[in-house]
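Collaboration report, partner site 2.

Our partner group contributed sequences for two proteins of shared interest, and the home lab folded both. The records are reproduced in the order in which they were received, starting with the first partner submission.
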Amino acid sequence: MEALFYIFSFIAIFSALMVISMKNPLTSALYLILCFFAFSGFYVMLDMQFLAVMQILVYAGAIMVLVVLVIMILNISKIKRVETDFHQKFIGILISLIIFVEIIFYIINGSQKKSTGIFTGAVIKKIGNTQIIGEFLFTKYTLSFEIASVLLFVAIIGAYIFAKKKF
């Protein structure tokens, strides 16, 4: 099991680095799909098969089709690259170093606390992840769920209006 964790970690880190280093946006989108598949592997390792399938269907499927469609519609490869000045590069490197130091600090000083929740592992295996997620979405987090659905609906309408405009 530990070997799978390292394999999925390597795939996720490698594909994430390739997403930000590729010059072609379509190639970056394909590496992002690979990263999503690695994350779904993590979900399977955590016995969250429903989330793994939703990760693949929603993100690697629907969202990435939308991203690739936008890349093709806008023809991003023909857009001229904007040169960055020294200040932008310096700020980017500084923020990257700060985040890297925080990660190292957490690895060195972080404690291995087990997460606690209202459901134990045995209860989750008995009831099932899908039922627990459904109960939370439609009881405790109903308002958040409805706001997210309205936001997605507005995004779909905006994408439709944006696609109808002549470029």
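Second partner submission, folded after the first:
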Amino acid sequence: MTTIEVKNLRRTFNKKSEFVAVDDVSFKINPGQIVALLGPNGAGKTTTVKMVAGYLTPTSGSVLIDGTNILDSPKLLRQNISTVFGGELGFYARATAYDNLNFFATLFNIPRSQRKQRIEKALKDVDLAEVTHKKISEFSRGMRQRMHIARALLKETDVILLDEPTSGLDVEIAHEIRSLVKQLAKQGKTILLTSHTMTEVEDLADRVLLIGAGKIIHDGTVKSVVSLSGVTKVDRPATLEESYLALAPELRR
């Protein structure tokens, strides 16, 4: 089980004048936790996730896995972090689910002797075992989204980054994906989630990180975000969506 800690993360881009995309962001996620990074477009969510995933080098600051900086150990990064971006692309449509995962197993340097077992386990974990030998072109959008998660599980990493995992899915399939994410957390996975779906964040997140203009504005629970917004309802508690809408103007650059 793995703890991931982000310390004073900063990322600037040099255009005509320096643009600060992420500014002194710090947070920690323990094993079994689902932490949601929530904010408007342009707030720094994607840049933060890309730095945690190792796709983008921080201008300053660090990402630690059990106390070790991933910049000092690319192997540690590969062995401990998987990223799920989702969407329609990312797989060979004319190849089967098994063959697709076998291709990625090769890229991940998974020993040949372990590949079959790990592919079968990953497909079983996302409830796709019965379609192991079906072509991806025959898969629904929800099945493809589960394939993205299966690809992450194939690496058997302790940290999973989920970027909009149910975007564009119907209600039933979205519910299945959320149930799977909860199961992963129960298994001790360390999960960072980004989502624009407030009901999803309410359902999944143990903690919510509100990010605005590249900074963490609030780190707390869904309940604390509602309290922060000051939104009250006479007949019921305020929802996260109502609270977020009230806070959104403060989060925009």
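Feedback sent to the partner group on the second submission included the following. The domain at 4-251 is CATH 3.40.50.300 (Rossmann fold). Residues 2 and 31 are 6 Å apart (CA to CA).
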